[in-house]
Amino acid sequence: MLTEDFKIRFYETDALGHVNNTVIPGWIETGRLPIFEFFGEMSPKTQSLIVARLEVDYLLPIYFGGHVTVNTYVSRLGGSSFDIITEIWQKDKLCAKGKTVLVYFDFQQERSVKLSDELKERLSTITHPEHPLDA
To answer: 3 vs 31, 36, 68, CA distance in Å?
Structure first.
C-alpha cells in the first residue's frame, strides 16, 4: 500500500469551511503517481496508462486546519487493466474513497496492451494488507 500525507491548504476549502469536492480527485491522482514508475517511460508515442473510470464516494466532510492521509492500493489485476482503491483519512476517520480503473494502452496502435507477468508481480506488491486481490 502507498501512503501520502497532505496538508490541507486554505484555497482547497469552500464557503462552508470544508474541502471542496473537486479537490478529492486531485488527491486520488497524486496518490497513484508512484504506480506510473512501474511502467517506465510513458508518452503518447509509446505505451502509457489511461484512466478508464474514476468513482468517488464522499463519506464525511474534510476540514481545513489539519492534514489528510491518502492510502492507495491495487485491488484487482486484469488482462490489460487494473483497479486502484484510494482511501482518504482525516483524524482516524475514512472521509472519502475512490476507485480508479487504469488501462495499459498503446497510443500508436490505439489499443490496450496486456500486462506482463512482471508488471502484475510488481503491482501485487502494493495491495492492502487486509484486502486480497480480486481476479
So the answer is: 7, 15, 10
